[in-house]
Amino acid sequence: LIQERRNICKQIHLPAQSGSSRVLQTMRRGLSSDFITGFCGETEEDHQQSVSLIREVGYNVAFLFAYSMRKKTRAYHRLGDDIPAEVKKLSPGGAYLYIPRRCG
């Protein structure tokens, strides 16, 4: 799919230490990842697609962060941070911990 469609990034890093739920449970691990919300120009539909991915994959743990500008990025020099902080819904600690289900 990545190869067929130009609007998808060139690579996706999906950390997984095993494809076996039994092995992951024995290792006391699961699928986890980091997600950024509120990137420049992100719409509610874009956000809901990310939520859909999290649910479809069935991550055991996902760390969610509100986007913030970094000087050495393309977004800093070419895009505007147009998503208000109250829309990003950042928790006081700076990240949400989303746990949709447990292993096994």
TrEMBL record:
SUPFAM superfamilies per UniProt: Radical SAM enzymes
GO CC annotation: cytosol; mitochondrion
Recorded GO MF terms: tRNA-2-methylthio-N(6)-dimethylallyladenosine(37) synthase activity
Coiled-coil blocks: none
Highest taxon above the source species: Eukaryota
Classification via InterPro entries: rSAM_horseshoe, rSAM_sf
Record's protein name: CDK5 regulatory subunit associated protein 1
